[in-house]
Backbone:
């Protein structure tokens, strides 16, 4: 029998996202939080985020720094007794936050991800040196100073190539066409 | 003969009428061939509804009746009886299921109504070809077989035996008592399990109407309700039970020490042993796999036998009652019974598979049953709560829902764990009052007489309740106070913070799961199993003790996890059902069975092996197959398989089925 | 000879894990495996893309899968992150038709189609399941002679389910070490996260995790670690000095790619092994094998 629900609540919105369908099943046992290596540094614990989504606290959820601390280690996902794909849910919340311009989260992680993506978009591949430099320049050049010993060590051991791998011109254009189209399609729900 | 068919469409309140246009269906039915009268009514199964049918049969001379309503599993007997009461043979009645198969599964009213019409048309065409049939009555053997000697089996056996009828109680372990005999105290009254159980066990052992067979298993069941033939294997104990006095001296002589199953491996027993201090029967038994003499016999050696011979040098005599008999063999006992009550119980979930909890890797991570034995005054530690190093714990954590409510293991809730976890907390507060006790829960399920009050009592007793499921148990310390401890990591969901609880001991409240041999037991007794593995009852709400196999009942935790009061109630219920049948003395056999046309049977025997109920035998003289109508369930496998088309399924003839199909298509 | 389509990932091809790429090719040759690199493959997008733009992140993988589909072989990658991302795309496209519709549309804009037939394998899975421990041991020229190795699996190769090894207590690398004559040490944190890309934006957090891992290996007597993930290797190796600085520890544990260890046992030379690219020097522990 088809079940009809009003799709205008926050929990309905999240349920429609791939990976978010389990959100109604959560029994708030806290196993995800207990398994999360970073739960202590999050504004809200992973299970708390789910409770907040179900309570319709849209703004608080999307501006939380919690999901930006997700390492995608998937311990929560394999241990959840209700089979909820918590990691996928965290990513879905991140993307939604970005689309709504709420992704500050008082962490540099969104900025780092965006630098990463910019390179992948234009080159089709990630040049590590270029990406790191760009990120540090963008956020806090002074921090880069601390990184110099590590960077030098990597350079000395031949692990930092100045040259970046690129796709062929056709490949680059093809990829851009695909990614542009993807962006125009909005979110996953 | 002219067919005069009456069609009745039920509204079933709004269950059917809310989706299906009942008046429209009735109007449609009126126009069908041979339909003399068509009515619709709000509740056909009610008295007025049934009276409509009865009155019409008399006044309009109906000789066939169709009711379009719910599932035949609900009310076929009701309407059949109504027809019979009005003088019409009950097999001239047919039901069209326009509820479970129509109104309850569709939302589109127009299409559902069309479907209902098709179903009615099919039923009408079918009933046209139906013939009157007579049910048979068979006598009921007043003996009862009870399989399993835990509290469920004990209760059922006593209820039946107290009425004066013979009970055969078969238990696979050397003593009855089951899991309850292993417990310390029981919730919420804190009665000592052994104290309330042993009187019943003793009564069973001495009851004139109970034949108790321990270390025995049912190997084969054949027959049908009221007339089962059961083959029981009574395994050799190598002890003459008539002579053995249960003195236990043999245990002291035996040199072989092995882990005790009754003590969950925490204590030891000998190769010859009395199963427990309150075993019934209170007799010794020799474990053939551990006894060096019995193992040596296979190689033609004659070793040990100290239990029998004693130690001559020291002037110690062996078994004074001369009860030891190494030549004893398994015995096959055949009994005939009318009813079977299956009470085979549960097993505890083994948490080794939950790697992150460390059971089996860390010392002092235990299961519920292990703790019961530790806490029990007659257990391996004489009732003291001790760590593996022999010291008392300063802190203990009890984890709820280990293996239960978990998609990765068992989806269901095991129902009793919240309560016995509270019980453990209480025992710990009593035995190690200085220790900190943590109880990690997701929900507290305390539904029962005195249960919620027990929870409140434990809150008063100073147990630290933490609402959070344990994520993992580690021994890697991050702070000085965690050194040398087991650290339980959870989220305290009420304060929304991750917590690390350093404790000395962890007790896991593990799931109750179906026994490992449940599949085999199901096949022996023709039981079905639910998706969770427990035995299937006839109806989850209204018939929780009967099964789809008439005469076979399931009681206790083998049907679903439950506490002792519910187990006892269910056992008594099954006993009552059996006694009702015995009291009536005979049982009606469904007439819709298969029959072999002797002239057309070619004697190929294909049907014999196919019958799932072993109802078909081969007559060597006449060289034809013969179907025992009492065992036959009318499943139709033989009908379909017979290459000569010699078997007819009564009430499911090809003509009837084809007519039904036509009715749907046209 | 077995053939696979090879997806090195950015790190292993020309990034910081070049040595992984080289040793992978060299070891595969010894095992009669031909890894044919996928033409014009693009970055998988890893965690960053899946956290910012979902559809795009699935499309990045889908393009690679579409290219691989034309070849018809299994797609093998040595990088755990690429492995989990590509697999996630495969299973999500099967499970969520609305998502698939959008990805199909985006792929169409690039003139591509993906029909869901590519099987994505991790390099380790191919070695132990397609080749087998016995066949690997047979190629050994030099036993590792009881070298105490901590097998660090990381998280994304064994989780989420289903994967080819146990999600909390994997054994495949441990068994590999044993087959090569080494001694795998008990290692409780063997499949816990190293901090991944958060080493860049949240260094303190990641250093904490790295320290715990190194501690667990060290306390159990490990002489070195092996890993199947370029990011894990960088974190544990290149940042070991920063861990020492922050926590006043003195870890000196070489961190190798598991193919480098195999290469050592197979008697391969530095050109194939690339041991000199390790930041924590390997000579002290491994000199006797070279």
Residues:
């Amino acid at each position: 029998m088809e079940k009809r629900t009003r799709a205008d609540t926050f929990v309905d919105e999240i349920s429609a996202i791939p990976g978010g369908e389990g959100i109604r099943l959560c029994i708030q046992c806290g196993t995800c939080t207990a398994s999360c290596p970073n739960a202590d540094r999050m504004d809200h614990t992973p299970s708390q985020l789910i409770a907040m989504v179900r309570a319709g606290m849209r703004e608080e959820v999307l501006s939380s720094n919690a999901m930006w601390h997700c390492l995608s280690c998937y311990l929560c996902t394999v241990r959840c007794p209700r089979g909820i794909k918590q990691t996928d849910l965290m990513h879905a919340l991140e993307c939604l936050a970005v689309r709504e311009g709420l992704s500050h989260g008082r962490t540099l992680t969104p900025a780092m991800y965006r630098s990463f993506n910019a390179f992948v978009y234009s080159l089709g591949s990630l040049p590590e040196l270029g990406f790191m430099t760009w990120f540090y320049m963008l956020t806090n050049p002074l921090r880069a100073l601390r990184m110099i010993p590590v960077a030098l060590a990597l350079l000395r051991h031949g692990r930092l190539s100045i040259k970046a791998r690129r796709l062929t011109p056709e490949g680059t254009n093809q990829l851009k066409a695909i990614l542009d189209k993807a962006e125009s399609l909005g979110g996953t729900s | 003969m002219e067919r005069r068919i009456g069609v009745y469409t039920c509204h079933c309140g709004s269950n059917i009428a809310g989706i299906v246009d009942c008046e429209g269906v009735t109007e449609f039915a009126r126009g069908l061939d041979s339909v003399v009268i068509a009515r619709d009514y709000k509740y056909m199964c009610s008295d007025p509804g049934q009276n409509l049918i009865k009155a019409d049969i008399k006044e309009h001379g109906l000789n066939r009746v169709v009711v379009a309503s719910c599932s035949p599993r609900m009310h076929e007997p009701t309407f059949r009886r109504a027809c019979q009461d009005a003088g019409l043979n009950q097999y001239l009645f047919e039901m069209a299921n326009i509820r479970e198969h129509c109104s309850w599964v569709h939302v589109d009213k127009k299409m559902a109504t069309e479907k209902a019409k098709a179903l009615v048309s099919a039923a009408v065409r079918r009933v046209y070809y139906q013939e009157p049939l007579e049910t048979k009555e068979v006598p009921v053997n007043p003996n009862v077989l009870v399989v399993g000697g835990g509290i469920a089996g004990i209760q059922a056996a006593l209820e039946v035996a107290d009425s004066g009828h013979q009970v055969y109680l078969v238990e696979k372990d050397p003593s009855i008592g089951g899991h309850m005999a292993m417990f310390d105290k029981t919730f919420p009254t804190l009665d000592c399990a052994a104290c309330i159980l042993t009187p019943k066990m003793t009564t069973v052992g001495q009851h004139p109407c109970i034949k108790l067979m321990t270390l025995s298993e049912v190997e084969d069941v054949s027959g049908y309700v009221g007339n089962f033939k059961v083959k029981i294997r009574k395994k050799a104990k190598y002890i003459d039970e008539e002579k053995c006095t249960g003195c236990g001296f043999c245990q002291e002589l035996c040199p072989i020490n092995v882990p005790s199953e009754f003590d969950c491996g925490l204590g030891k027993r000998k190769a010859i042993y009395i199963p427990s201090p309150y075993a019934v029967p209170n007799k010794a038994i020799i474990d053939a796999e551990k006894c060096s003499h019995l193992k040596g016999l296979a190689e033609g050696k004659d070793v040990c036998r100290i239990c029998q011979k004693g130690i001559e040098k020291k002037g110690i005599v062996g078994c004074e009652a001369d009860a030891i008999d190494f030549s004893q063999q398994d015995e096959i006992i055949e009994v005939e019974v009318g009813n079977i009550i299956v009470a085979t119980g549960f097993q505890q979930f083994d948490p080794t598979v939950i790697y992150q909890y460390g059971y089996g890797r860390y010392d002092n991570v235990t299961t519920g049953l292990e703790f019961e034995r530790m806490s029990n005054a007659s257990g391996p530690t004489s009732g003291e709560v001790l760590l593996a190093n022999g010291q008392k714990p300063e802190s203990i954590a009890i984890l709820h829902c280990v293996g239960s409510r978990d998609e990765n293991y068992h989806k269901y809730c095991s129902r009793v764990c919240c309560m016995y976890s509270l019980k453990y907390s209480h025992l710990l507060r009593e035995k190690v009052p200085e220790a900190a006790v943590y109880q990690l829960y997701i929900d507290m399920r305390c539904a029962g007489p005195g249960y919620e009050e027990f929870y409140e009592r434990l809150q008063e007793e100073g147990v630290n309740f933490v609402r959070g499921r344990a994520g993992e148990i580690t021994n890697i310390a991050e702070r000085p106070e965690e050194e040398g401890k087991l650290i339980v990591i959870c989220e305290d969901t009420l304060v929304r913070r991750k917590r690390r609880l350093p404790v000395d001991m962890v007790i896991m409240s593990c799931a109750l799961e179906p026994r490992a041999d449940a599949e085999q037991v199901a096949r022996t007794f023709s039981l079905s199993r639910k998706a969770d593995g427990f035995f299937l009852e006839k109806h989850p709400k209204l018939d929780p003790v009967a099964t789809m196999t008439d005469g076979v009942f399931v009681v206790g935790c083998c049907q679903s996890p439950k506490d002792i009061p519910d187990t006892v109630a269910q056992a008594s219920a099954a006993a009552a059902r059996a006694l009702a049948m015995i009291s009536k003395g005979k049982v009606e056999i469904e007439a819709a069975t298969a029959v072999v046309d002797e002239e057309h049977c070619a004697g190929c025997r294909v049907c014999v092996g196919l019958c799932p109920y072993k109802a078909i035998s081969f007559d060597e003289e006449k060289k034809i197959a013969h179907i025992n109508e009492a065992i036959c369930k009318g499943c139709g496998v033989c009908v379909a398989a017979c290459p000569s088309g010699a078997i007819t399924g009564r009430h499911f003839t090809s003509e009837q089925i084809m007519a039904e199909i036509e009715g749907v298509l046209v | 000879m077995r053939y696979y389509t090879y997806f090195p990932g950015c790190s292993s091809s020309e990034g910081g894990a070049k040595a992984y790429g080289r040793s992978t090719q060299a070891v595969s040759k010894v095992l009669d495996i031909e890894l044919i690199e996928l033409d014009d493959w693009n970055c998988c997008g890893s965690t960053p893309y899946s956290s910012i733009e979902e559809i795009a992140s699935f499309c990045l993988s889908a393009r690679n899968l579409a290219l691989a589909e034309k070849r018809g072989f299994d797609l093998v990658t040595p990088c755990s992150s690429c492995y989990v991302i590509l697999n996630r795309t495969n299973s999500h496209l099967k499970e969520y038709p609305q998502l698939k519709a959008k990805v199909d549309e985006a792929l169409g804009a690039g003139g591509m189609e993906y029909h869901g037939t590519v099987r994505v394998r991790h390099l380790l899975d191919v070695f132990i399941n397609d080749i087998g421990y016995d066949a690997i041991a047979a190629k050994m020229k030099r036993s590792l002679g009881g070298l105490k190795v901590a097998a660090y699996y990381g998280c994304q190769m064994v989780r989420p389910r289903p994967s080819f090894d146990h999600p909390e207590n994997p054994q495949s690398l441990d068994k590999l070490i044993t087959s090569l004559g080494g001694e795998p040490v008990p290692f409780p944190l063997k499949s816990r996260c190293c901090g991944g890309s958060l080493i860049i934006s949240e260094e303190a957090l990641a250093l904490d995790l790295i320290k715990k891992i190194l501690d667990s290996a060290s306390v159990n007597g490990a002489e070195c670690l092996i890993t199947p993930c370029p990011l894990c290797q960088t974190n544990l190796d290149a940042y070991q000095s920063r861990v020492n600085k922050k926590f006043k520890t003195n870890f000196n544990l070489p961190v190798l790619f598991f193919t480098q260890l195999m290469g050592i046992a197979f008697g391969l030379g530095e050109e194939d092994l690339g041991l000199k690219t390790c930041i924590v020097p390997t000579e002290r522990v491994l000199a006797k094998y070279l």
Notes: The longest strand of chain B covers residues 216-224. Chain B is about 30% helix and 25% strand. Residues 249-317 of chain B form one domain.
